[in-house]
Automatic annotation (TrEMBL):
Biochemical pathway: Amino-acid biosynthesis; L-histidine biosynthesis; L-histidine from 5-phospho-alpha-D-ribose 1-diphosphate: step 7/9
Keywords for the protein's UniProt record, in alphabetical order: Amino-acid biosynthesis, Aminotransferase, Histidine biosynthesis, Pyridoxal phosphate, Transferase
GO molecular function, one term: histidinol-phosphate transaminase activity
Protein name: Histidinol-phosphate aminotransferase
Family annotation (Pfam families): Aminotran_1_2
Top-level enzyme category: transferase
Subunit structure: Homodimer.
Gene that this polypeptide is encoded by: hisC
Length: 369
């Protein structure tokens, strides 16, 4: 029995020899590897969540609101207040994390015989979820400085005529943002090739020096902006992602969503968190300052750092990034090796966590010299 493994099962061909998403969850003193918000939710919010969940619990014998109307209305308000563009309930859809939003978009607009493109290195789950939905994945190019090389990207879109174009801004794992002009040009290139969906993944937008690309939705019915409460709202454990788009897109994703996909507990918890938006966004300001400090100090120590608009920083260059990752881990600090040759990524933590990380890499630099 023990020799029986995954290869003995009739798994779909496109899943053979693939690895599941696997950021290590190690029990070490300082965990700066999954771009989480290091601050626990404030106690008044914890209380409010408990209250709202208690109310929801009284009705758990019933299915939840299938269309999550109250939650989508509040998310629309949040986007309108912060995004410099007015959206309503009809423009917003929510699911269990933006990963599920992305999966629903791929199920709706991708699938067997269709393709999606992303400009890599970028968020690896775009490609993995594409494969999981039977969508062909095309790895589009980035420049050596990790910016999207517009001419090369336009060529790739014209050549492959993908059904879905993913643009991650700020990009994970590199941290840099994609300028709005580039997104507009890629949208036009995608529509010239054939009507295809352009998904702007703004998981980290609240940490950016720049604005959300929500205003680009005006007059662009094939554009989707996807967001999450996992990062800025400090609620990765909640599993709540959402999108803003033309109402037709919201109608379309309902064709694939599972009935009652968002539990009443999730909806209640997210609504409580949205009541505390101002407090939670206060932490974002602290994290942005810490991110800028990490960039400055890493450069002062002598590392190369990619410009960051996110809550993490990509630093290098290393002949053997994995070896350095292990040495940092040996000092009790977990960072991320995303497999980008020569580079590692560190999430902005609390000032104390960042100090521990900076001490570790300072020591390493001394050892090397
Ligand atoms: N998009 C990007 C670019 C991400 O980095 C992540 C999480 N690491 C996600 C989407 C998914 O986030 P979640 O499912 O927690 O909303």
């Amino acid at each position: 029995m023990s020799s029986f493994g995954i290869d003995d099962l009739p798994v779909r061909d496109e899943l053979r020899c693939k690895s599941p998403y696997g950021a290590p969850q190690l029990d070490v003193p300082v965990r700066l590897n999954t771009n989480e918000n290091p601050y626990a939710l404030p106690e008044p919010l914890v209380e409010r969540i408990a209250e709202r969940v208690r109310e929801a619990a009284r009705n758990l014998n019933r299915y939840p609101d299938r269309d999550a109307v109250e939650l989508r209305t509040e998310l629309a308000k949040y986007l309108t207040d912060t995004g410099k563009y007015a959206v309503g309930l009809e423009n917003v859809w929510a699911a269990n994390g933006s990963n599920e939003v992305i999966q629903q978009l791929l199920q709706t607009f991708g699938g067997p015989g269709r393709t999606a493109i992303g400009f890599e290195p970028s968020y690896s789950m775009h490609g993995l979820i594409a494969r999981g939905t039977g969508t062909g994945w095309i790895s589009g190019p980035r420049g050596d400085d990790f910016t999207v090389d517009l001419a090369a990207a336009e060529r790739a879109i014209a050549e492959h005529r993908p059904d879905i174009v993913f643009i991650t801004t700020p990009n994970n794992p590199t941290g840099n943002a994609v300028p709005p002009e580039t997104v507009i040009a890629l949208y036009e290139a995608a529509q010239a090739a054939k009507p295809s969906m352009v998904v702007v993944d703004e998981a980290y937008i609240e940490f950016s020096h720049g604005d959300s690309l929500l205003p680009l939705l005006e007059g662009r019915p094939y554009l989707v902006v996807s967001r999450t409460m996992s990062k800025a709202f400090g609620a990765a454990g909640l599993r709540l992602g959402y999108l803003a788009a033309h109402p037709a897109v919201v109608d379309a994703v309902q064709l694939v969503r599972l009935p009652y996909h968002l539990s009443a507990v999730t909806q209640a918890t997210a609504l409580a968190a949205l009541e505390h938006t101002d407090t939670l966004l206060g932490y974002v300001e602290q994290l942005k300052a810490e991110r800028d400090r990490l960039v400055a100090e890493l450069r002062a120590i002598g590392y190369e750092v990619t410009e960051s608009d996110a809550n993490f920083v990509q630093f290098g260059r290393f002949a053997d990034a994995h070896h350095v990752w292990q040495k940092i881990l040996d000092r009790g600090v977990l960072v991320r090796d995303n497999g980008v040759p020569g580079w590692l990524r560190v999430s902005a933590g609390t000032p104390e966590e960042n100090d521990a990380f900076l001490d570790a890499v300072r020591e390493l630099k001394k050892e090397q010299n």
